[in-house]
Amino acid sequence: MGNVSVRALPDFDAELAAAGRAHARGGHPRDAVAQLYSRSTSPDLAEGVSRLYLSHLFARRSPTPFTKALAEGDERAGSVLAHAIDQLRSTVIEPHQSSIRSAVAARAVGLSQIYVGSGASAMLQHVGHGIRLRRGVLELPTAFDTDLELGRASLQIQAVALSRQVTLAEPAGDLLTIRIPAGTAPRTEPGHMAALQSLLGTGRAEALASIVISGGLTGRQLASLLGVSNAAASRHAAVLRRGGLIQTMRRGQCVAHVATPLGYRLAQPETATGP
């Protein structure tokens, strides 16, 4: 096998796909988005719904008038679907980006620590959901149980905050991505926060809690949240970094502070962690 990695950043396309599945389960069966889902098929909403996907959907069940119109390229049906997807994104994804980042980052930190200490097989077993890695074969309990011969392919683990099931992303070259549930976002209870303040001091405790809950902050974002100057936020971050509670990493064009495993453990109540 090539290598295994755990992504600490959210994949908002995967979050949208997971939100679509949840919406289809709980929504009205005639809803525009719900009609695209069946027990065995899930469209990638971020990429748009292709006619090829619709043909696979039709092979498993009879098309509705709406999905038939989509497959035939009806512009009005396409407009209805685009509006429904935009509404799903604006109501389920965009208002909760901070908690999504936090949940994904916390899950990634915990899994990375197990991977470094005990190896890929132990990490995948800790993920649960029936995932197994045996002699280079990855066993996945997706909609259909899947066995993948990894060979030299690289394996990436992507936590998805809005997902409740394991899914397999479309392979990209020699990269395979397993999407797993991230679990709940970290939180800091009032009593726990008071203990953290007595240990670190009020400013640094609030800085650490903000970094954990957000999933990562730039220096300016941290200063804004704390209501202090950029220099003061930088001093808090420097102390936390020297203490091994945060690390600084590049995210695109920005540099962000993210919590280390020790920082997450210190800032969260014990009940917030788990597989």
Features:
alpha+beta; 11 helices; globular
Order of helices and strands: EHHHHHHEEEEEEHHEHHEEH
Spatial separation of the terminal alpha carbons:
25 Å
Number of helices: 11
pLDDT below 50 for ≥5 consecutive residues: which ranges?
271-275
State the helicity in percent bands.
40-55%
Total beta strands: 10
Secondary-structure-based class equals alpha+beta
Q: Report on the biggest sheet.
A: 4 strands, mixed
Q: Which whole number gives the mean pLDDT?
A: 81
User: What is the overall shape?
Assistant: globular
Per DSSP, what share of the residues sits in E-state strands of 2 or more residues?
15-25%
Radius of gyration: 21 Å
Strand order of the largest sheet: 1-5-7-6
Describe the overall structure:
With 275 residues, this protein is α+β, with helices and mostly antiparallel strands. It contains eleven helices and ten strands. The protein has helices at residues 12-26, 51-60, 65-71, 75-93, 97-118, 120-127, 190-200, 202-214, 219-226, 230-242, 261-267, and strands spanning 4-7, 132-134, 137-141, 145-149, 154-160, 167-168, 175-181, 217-218, 246-251, 254-259. The protein has a four-stranded mixed sheet with strand order 1-5-7-6. A three-stranded antiparallel sheet has the order 2-3-4. The chain has a three-stranded antiparallel sheet with strand order 8-10-9, sandwiched between helices. The two termini are 25 Å apart.
What topology does this entry show?
Elements: E1 4-7, H1 12-26, H2 51-60, H3 65-71, H4 75-93, H5 97-118, H6 120-127, E2 132-134, E3 137-141, E4 145-149, E5 154-160, E6 167-168, E7 175-181, H7 190-200, H8 202-214, E8 217-218, H9 219-226, H10 230-242, E9 246-251, E10 254-259, H11 261-267
Parallel strand pairs: 1-5, 5-7
Antiparallel strand pairs: 2-3, 3-4, 6-7, 8-10, 9-10
Helix pairs in contact: 1-4, 5-6, 7-8, 8-10, 9-10
